[in-house]
Design a protein that fits this description.
This protein is of the alpha+beta class. The protein is 51% helix and 15% strand. Strands 1-4-2-3 form a 4-stranded mixed sheet, sandwiched between helices. β2, α3 and β3 form a beta-alpha-beta unit. This is Ribosomal protein L7Ae.
């Protein structure tokens, strides 16, 4: 599903893009890799909570990167409400 979001252009990935997207209110769902450092997870969770952004901790950095056709990714921001709802349903 993340790959489909990527093809549709509804994903931000990479630390700078994700952080900027969160600050600008562009995201509807934040997905964090479970193997991210505790500090990284804490920082992203605080940012998500501050901006009332739902988040899930799922998969590994390598898995997120592969789903996007890129290298390892710590965080992925879904920027479409419909895709975010579908992802939340699948992740729960």
């Amino acid at each position: 599903m993340i790959g489909l979001c990527m093809k549709a252009g509804k994903v931000l990935s990479g630390n700078e893009q994700v952080e900027k997207g969160i600050r600008k209110g562009k995201g509807y769902l934040l997905i964090l890799a479970a193997d991210s450092s505790e500090q990284t997870k804490k920082d992203y969770v605080l940012a998500a909570e501050r901006h009332h952004l739902p988040y899930r901790i799922f998969g590994t950095k390598e898995m997120l990167g592969q789903a996007l056709g890129k290298g390892v990714r710590t965080a992925v921001l879904i920027t479409d409400r419909g895709f975010a709802r579908a992802m939340l349903t699948k992740l729960e």
